[in-house]
Amino acid sequence: MSSHHIVREKQEPALYIHHLGAFDEEYLGQLLEWSPTLIINASDYEKVISLGLKVDAVVSAEDQIFFQENTKVIQAEGELLDAVLDHLIAEKYPAVNVIDLKSNLRELGSYVGSINIVVFTEKEKAYAIRSGFKIWKPRGSIFYIEVVSYFEASNLMQKENAQFEVVEDGFVTFSFDTPFLFISEQL
Questions:
Q1: The whole model's pTM is what?
Q2: pLDDT > 50? residue 4
Q3: With contact defined as beta carbons under 8 Å apart, do 20 and 48 qualify?
Q4: pLDDT-derived band of residue 1, with 50, 70 and 90 as boundaries?
Q5: What is the C-alpha radius of gyration for the chain, rounded to an integer number of angstroms?
């Protein structure tokens, strides 16, 4: 990595750690590589600070909490994840990576039209795609797709209920009539 890169604010997806759990530190390092805005759930604050990370904002439902100097507090009235997404959309962030214990992307369906969301768990990466989405994958790569509406895909073969395997090295293209399709892949 060259030191000549200029990263504009909000160019990289923000990173929200909802629940760190046993998330792989190497993957965490990759998500932090370009110094995204780092927002964390107050319950994971001590753990994240112990990793030596600079936290930009903490989301909390509590009133009087003290954090690192220059750490913004996002006050949550309801769900913490909703408060973070509402904040990022209001601040005009185009995308966010979320680390959580489960990939609850379908529950975030009302947000995917306003901000690109990728949910990482210890084992998978889940995201919403639009029709025409195209991605290069090596042969044997596995996608998990909860089939709730009809879709077509090139270079993909269904293995089990929600498991689809890439047939040959190359692009996989998806087409469908719904606004989004939720897919995931193993890390």
A1: 0.88
A2: no
A3: yes
A4: very low
A5: 18
